[in-house]
């Protein structure tokens, strides 16, 4: 039996990047998938690849900064599958890296609305369908970032939003344990198609800063989203993580090692 056999897993931002790799890995592990993203053509490609792996998939074009679109995503997912076993809040719009003095309140607004606000709404919308599952219960995985934990230069709005995600997740973990829901965050480090494409047009100093960050680990290599990060998310979705909640997991090859 596969690790996520017949579990209904909602994944945001699944058209590319880590979200796409998570969807493919979950499909290979037997999950039923509800996926969303803004770009419908790319989302349909993820859906096709997941179906080739044997998964049942519903794909909904969604702007996660639009609450009504989030409501529709959850409604369509539940209508198709009847329940939700796991919610993976991965999507986030990252503004262009720049020094704090050059960032604007609009940058902060975009990053807050596309992460902590969207995660807030989706957790509440999914709650009636996550609560009181028997056995290991249900799982929420919210994506945070090592860049926020360490206060990485050039990422003020991103860091502010991602640390807010961690704080919110700890509170919800405490409050929703009584409903047999566990809530954890993950700080991943893996080179995605989005990142490799995006850094090509950045200033040389910014590009060098980002490239070095991806190999700043004991293995001295870049992490692979499918092989290195997605299995950690599979574990957190699976029943094997039934006794883990309120935790932040660094799937980063030891990029951040602390007591």
Your description of this structure?
By secondary structure, this protein is α/β, with parallel strands linked by helices. It has a single domain (8-250), classed as NAD(P)-binding Rossmann-like Domain (Rossmann fold), CATH 3.40.50. The protein contains nine helices and seven strands, in the order βαβαβαβαβααβαααβ. It has helices at 17-28, 40-52, 67-81, 105-130, 146-150, 156-176, 193-198, 204-213, 225-237, and strands at residues 8-12, 32-37, 57-61, 86-89, 138-143, 181-188, 248-251. A seven-stranded parallel beta sheet has the order 3-2-1-4-5-6-7, with helices on both faces. The longest helix has 26 residues, at 105-130. It starts with 7 loop residues before the first strand and ends in an 8-residue tail after the last strand. The mean pLDDT is 93.
């Amino acid at each position: 039996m596969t690790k996520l056999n017949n579990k209904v897993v909602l994944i945001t931002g699944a058209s590319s990047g880590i979200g796409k790799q998570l969807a493919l890995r979950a499909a290979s592990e037997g999950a039923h998938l509800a996926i969303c993203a803004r770009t419908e053509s790319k989302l349909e490609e993820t859906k096709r690849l997941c179906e080739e792996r044997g998964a049942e998939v519903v794909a909904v074009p969604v702007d996660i900064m639009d609450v009504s679109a989030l409501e529709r995503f959850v409604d369509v997912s539940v209508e198709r599958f009847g329940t939700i076993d796991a919610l993976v809040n991965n999507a986030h719009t990252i503004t262009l890296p720049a020094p704090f003095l050059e960032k604007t309140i609009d940058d902060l607004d975009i990053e807050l609305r596309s992460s902590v606000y969207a995660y807030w709404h989706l957790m509440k919308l999914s709650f009636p369908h996550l609560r009181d599952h028997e056995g290991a219960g249900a799982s929420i995985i919210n994506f945070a970032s090592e860049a926020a934990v360490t206060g990485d230069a050039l990422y003020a709005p991103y860091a502010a939003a991602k640390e807010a995600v961690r704080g919110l997740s700890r509170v919800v973990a405490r409050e929703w344990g009584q409903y047999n829901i566990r809530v954890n965050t993950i700080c991943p480090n893996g080179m995605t198609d989005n990142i490799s494409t995006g850094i090509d047009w950045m200033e040389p100093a910014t590009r060098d800063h980002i490239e070095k960050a991806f190999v700043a680990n004991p293995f001295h290599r870049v992490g692979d989203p499918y092989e290195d990060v997605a299995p950690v998310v599979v574990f957190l979705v699976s029943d094997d993580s039934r006794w883990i909640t309120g935790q932040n997991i660094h799937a980063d090859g030891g990029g951040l090692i602390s007591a």
